[in-house]
Amino acid sequence: MLQSLQIKNFALIEQLHIDFSDKLSIITGETGAGKSILLGALGLVLGNRADLTSLKDKTAKCIIEASFKISDYNLNDFFNQNDLDYEATTIIRREILPSGKSRAFVNDSPITLQVLQQLGNHLIDIHSQQQTRELSDEQYQMQIIDAVASTGASIATYKKQLTKLKSLQLDLDTAKQQKADLAKEHDYNTFLLQELIDAKLEAGEQESLEAELEKLSNVEFIKELLAKAIGLATDEQMGALQSLKEIKIALQKLSSLSAEHNSFYDRVSSLLIEMDDVTEEISQNFETLVDDPARLTLINQKLQLLYTLQKKHNVATVAELIAIQNELESKAVQSDGIDATIQKLEDAVTKAKAAIDETALLISDKRKAAIPVLTKKITALLSQLGMPNARFQFNVTHTDNYYITGKDSISLLFSANKGTDFGLLKKVASGGEMSRIMLSVKAVLADYSKLPTIIFDEIDTGVSGEISNKMGNIMKVMSNGMQVFAITHLPQIAAKGNQHYKVFKTTQGETTVSELKLLSGEDRVREIAEMLSGKDISDSALNHARALLN
């Protein structure tokens, strides 16, 4: 419930403080007196965008502060989720600085406009003529039915299921695109992979082949030098082996004289053994060296293949070629497995659709069951408002489409008079009829939604006389369960209020300001009489005003 409102330096208002009752409050005033300014101030508190044109004094900041009693509206979770201090009496403050910057606070904690707007949706429903036009909107019509059908929990479940379905569908679409991409690359990748497989790549192979190539390319030169080495080692007169043998014999005679000489003998003996082994291996290597042009050709061909593949894949080693081969084999396996992935996702999508379809059907059934109840209540109220023959036809169609709140589409048809065909509401209802329909809808929704405050901004447009009196009665009944404000030009409605405020403009020097005054007693009688007869108030108008108030 809106308990109080303070406004400073906003539009034509210099400073204003006002307290409100929890019943029906009436706001009246001449056109242009500033009633829209009050709504504008409330709009800022509820999160509307602000600009410098809102400031009366461009050098000072604008402050709008509203106090709400929220203890009965189960908002603790909202405050916890948004890290706000919960207070049974919550104060929302909005500041607009001369620089153009805007700040918002809830119980002195800074808050973003997005969160403020979400909070505002729980506090006040401002009904304007624009919202009356929204009655023709399919989404708004569905919200009306859902309020009566109590589909909130089912729609919450549906939205979670819809999120899951969209996620699975996205994964499925991605997998199918991946399959298409792999199909485009498949033939080329298969060709590349087969090339690498046919090359029979082995780690270290390139270095081994290059060494063997060097050897086979220089067979004669190598044999010549090996033969020379063998000769120097094995010559009977001057060979290294013969010389070592003679050194060994000489040292053998000295080895028994001292440990030092024995060490010389042992070392030369080791050299002789090592020299003999090396000479033997050199001889064997010499014997195995043959000029093999065929092998040389094969090595050249294999190396040329390796060099070609390395250039083609922009790498420098066989190890890198093997890595590319492994990657291509992995892609081939991936291509083979993508069908299984797609099948798995298709099964999951089918299962998710079955679950969400079941929930959507439950929502649709609840809506169809609620329509007769809703229609009966609205037509009963319209009958009181001078439309006894009004008829509604809510056509809810279950579709194959997944909308945000289910799979239903809706069309609202209306007939105001007997013998007239049904037509789309926005085409066949007049402005006055739309106002009465909207009030009836709001009155019905008041029994189902838990909105603490509703503000009717000239919902009485297009009606007068006894009908306006009935509209006032409906608002009066609504105010028994919620706080109701009515901005009106009709005395019949104004007389129904528990409180009556008048908005008026005054001139102070060179400045025009808007003010708000709580009327009581004779002041209220005169205001209603003026609404009846104009500035020149007659005695009959005063008597009529007293009669209305009584």
From TrEMBL:
Residues 1-511 form the RecF/RecN/SMC N-terminal domain. It holds the Pfam family SMC_N. InterPro entries: DNA_recomb/repair_RecN, P-loop_NTPase, RecF/RecN/SMC_N. The keyword DNA damage applies. Keywords: ATP-binding, Coiled coil, DNA damage, DNA repair, Nucleotide-binding. It comes from the Bacteria. Residues 158-185 form a coiled coil. SUPFAM superfamilies: P-loop containing nucleoside triphosphate hydrolases. Belongs to the RecN family. May be involved in recombinational repair of damaged DNA. This is DNA repair protein RecN. The gene is recN.
